[in-house]
Sequence to fold (424 residues):
Amino acid sequence: MGLGSLNSIPSRNDSNDSYSLVGFIVLTLFVYALIYRPFISWMFIAPSIRLGIEGFIICLLVVINLRYRYSEGLLWLISLVVIFGCVLFFHLDTFIKLASTINKWVFLTLLIGLFIGNPKILHTSIKLWKILFSVLCTMAIIAFVGYKTGLIPFSPLVLSGNYYFHNPILGNLIPRRLFGTEFGRVTGFMHEGQYFGFFLGMNILLAKDWILDASSRTRFIWINLIAGIFTLSTTFFVFFTLYFLSTCSVGGKKPDMVLRLMFFSVLGAMVIGLLIGLNYFEQTSASIRIIRFFQNWSYFLHGDWLSMLLGYGTGIMRVELGIGFESGWFAILVDHGLIMFLLMASLFAMLTKHNRWLLFYILLTHFANNMFWSPLFLILIAMSYAFHRDTLRRVVVPERLPEALPADGSYSVMPSSEAPKPAL
Fold:
């Protein structure tokens, strides 16, 4: 069965083939996400293998979106493999980074087309996402409690300059002392706790859209919230403290948007002031991020106008000052310039404006994170946008048009189960 039959009405055998194909596509997408940052698995996989898988994924998306035959898709795949092979052979590190950046743009564009054109793949991907993070959250909670109580053993592990406590089943913890008490900061199988907390936060904000059943939605939100707190992420803690206080209802009614914004701002200043008074930021990486924030900003402002518009080059701050980026926005601004910065900001605003809290969350958290080029983040953004489009389509277009209009000529959009039956 060809790829073009994903949306056709299949026979029983074709249906089995269709489900197998959907499963293969979804699993391939998630494998691609799992071998890149923020998962620690990227350290153990050679760049050539990652780039080869990335080339195959892009080729597969092109085949599905444009309905090419497999033979034509293989030509694309061979071309990509040859290009990546030449890049690796000549050790063109800058070109590799540039190609990887462009590939992520292509991947996001094709992935949105895939999800919008194939709702079956979209809903299967969302289902797998919820299962994956339910498992990760459960393991994170067990790891945090098990480490604190001493019931679960963890062994020291040094990985890429970071010191972890490792459990082969539950993942990693980073030792962290707060307010005189030692905790194990949950990172799971990701590089840092802040990255894990970032995705848990997005899950909370998307649960209302994705999960219709109230009890299942509440359970999913709580398990992500508890695991997010156990990451000891300052960004996660501050944002969701303000989020839940700002969205709570008073007397069964939610306050006006302007009042909520004012309440959010005042409450935010109070929470941050309290944390400063408790010397909380000295016990976290926040002070280092603030220093790097101003270093990046100063470097950007002291360049010529052409560099400010087009960027200084990928990884310039690591080369010049030996520091990495803690801010996704500054990574784009310094590396790729003001033009790319405005394009990226416009793109993600367009893809997330259907969920204003999600838009605000990405805007705020990317001053501390840099997930813009992570396949996991791009898959989540594509699923969120495509699900919104699919919801609009199902609301505007009825599942089945009535065979005859009412006598008065009126007609309202209703599900097929409630559609009026034609008169006999």
Q: What stands out?
A: DSSP finds 15 helices and four strands in the chain. The CA atoms of residues 404 and 423 lie 8 Å apart. The longest strand covers residues 171-178. Strands lie at 155-159, 162-167, 171-178, 181-188.
